[in-house]
Design a protein that fits this description.
Layout (H helix, E strand, L loop, with lengths): L1 H8 L13 H12 L7 E6 L3 H9 L6 E5 L2
Parallel strand pairs: 1-2
């Protein structure tokens, strides 16, 4: 609610988008990526051990693409 009040004072409208995983859609997206029809933009990759740093980086709002945490 605090975010809603702040945005309302500044005349900003926003909405949340909630998504659920859909295997069929993910398969189509995978095919588009593999065919180079779309290209995901990766800003930075962090090793799993630096997950806290990755989250802090995302919170800055300066990421220009996806921030990836590599498990392996």
């Amino acid at each position: 609610m605090r975010i809603r009040r702040k945005s309302k004072r500044r005349g900003i409208n926003y909405s949340f988008v909630f998504m659920t995983a859909n295997g069929g859609q993910l398969a189509r997206i995978t095919a588009l990526i593999e065919a180079s029809v779309i290209r995901p933009v990766v800003d930075r990759i962090f090793p799993f051990e630096r997950t806290d740093e990755a989250l802090s980086y995302v919170e800055t709002g300066r990421a220009k693409g996806k921030v990836v945490v590599a498990v392996k």
